[in-house]
Design goal:
Length: about 160
């Protein structure tokens, strides 16, 4: 599947389905192996936007987070990601500084009806302007130089 051909927009209907899927995922029994992590994960829900860095248009993708730890987070969206694919997440303003996080996808799994769960690792943080957040040029160069693996194909 060509990941650039996937529609990155998320309708309100998709958003509602994602919140329902998050509830199902959180209530499902987990395998013991799935919770053997270096860092404790905490449930964390917010609808946000990430910016793809390796594509020249820098498209924005709507996401809904599932959980967060000190080393990364997971989210659901309508687009598959390749392991190693880099993106930026701008966090809402806290006090006087707004932060942008450089992230890399670690895994992607198809969940249901065109929705994917992505686990991502935090790589770097930077302070950005409140009104016009600029992604550091070094991040864009790093993302375009990376050679991510092919994304997990969506199930029919």
């Amino acid at each position: 599947m060509n990941i650039m051909a996937v529609n990155a927009e998320m309708s309100e209907h998709d958003l509602g389905e994602i919140y329902a899927l998050l509830q199902l995922l959180d209530n499902a029994p987990t395998q013991r192996r799935a919770n053997q992590r270096l860092r404790q994960r905490s449930a964390c829900r917010f609808a946000g936007v990430i910016t793809l860095l390796a594509l020249s248009a820098r498209p924005e993708i709507r996401i809904v987070t599932r959980n967060v730890s000190t080393t990364g987070f997971s989210f659901l969206c309508t687009r598959p990601f390749a392991p190693g694919e880099m993106f930026a997440l701008c966090l809402p303003a806290c006090a006087t500084t707004r932060k942008a996080l450089l992230c890399a996808a670690k895994f992607c799994r198809y969940v249901h009806k065109g929705k994917h769960e992505i686990g991502a690792e935090f790589l770097e943080a930077a302070a950005v302007e409140h009104h016009d957040p600029q992604i550091p040029k070094e991040w864009i160069m790093r993302a375009t130089a990376a050679k991510p693996k092919r994304p997990v194909p969506a199930k029919a």
